[in-house]
Hints:
Helices cover 64% and strands 10% of the residues. The chain has eleven helices and four strands. Strands 2-3-1-4 form a four-stranded antiparallel sheet. It is elongated and about 80 Å long.
Amino acid sequence: MAFYDKYNEYIDIIIGVTLLAISLNVFFVPNNLVTGGVAGLGIIILELSETFLGFGIPIWVTNISINLPLLLLTYKINGKAMFYKTLFGIASLTAALSITEHIPNIYPDLTIATIFGGALVGIGAGLVIRRGATTGGTVLMAALIHHFMKHVKFTSIQLFIDVVIILIGMFIFGVIETMYAIVSIFITIKVIDAMVQGLQSAKAAVILSQKSEEVSKALIASMERGVTAIPARGVYSGESKDMLLCIMSQKELVKTKALVKKIDPTAFVMVASVTEVMGANFKPLE
Length: 286
């Protein structure tokens, strides 16, 4: 554990890029699923080189050939800290792609490849992103373009690049594979969100009551959760009262609603989902 605590950032990056590489070589490459990025470009170049050159240019060669120059060009844009982590991510992914390409090809149906491939990429990319690094790709391309076109949103540039790569893949591999690739992208995004934001969701309850003092004391006593009182004024009624804010679990929400109803049946309660909660009685602040 001491070793992991000291080098946990780089260990997580290695695990992440290994999962990415396995997903690409086991699920995406055999099924011609082009999901954008340098990896998608690598799948296209692999297919074209086999067709016109008689030999395939491995994805790991494309990865290092495109990403390394891009990283050097964006050194001043992204900063020194991100540079070294991204350099490590690119080098690790290149090595992982080279090693995992020797795994025997699996040719499952496209549905299985889409679901498991997308999920595996999401887990791998999520681990890398959580450590403040990237594996290069369209992130570096977009950063370089955005540096000279600041009036265009960074995310719009990245999306445009990915769409172009996906469209090229569609013309080469067909519409069906492209539709599955788009589904895989959606799965990847959802898994990345879960990895970065955390799986421990919670509920935020906003309570407006004439008996706010009584309600807040009851909540603290029954659930041992902190309650924040925010001064508020109703525009229509002109009445001033405290708005109570309390973060809790789904199970505690049921108890809270019953408790508020018992104290003040006329209270106004609003509930919102919270994707990640850190500190207090929840998970430690990262």
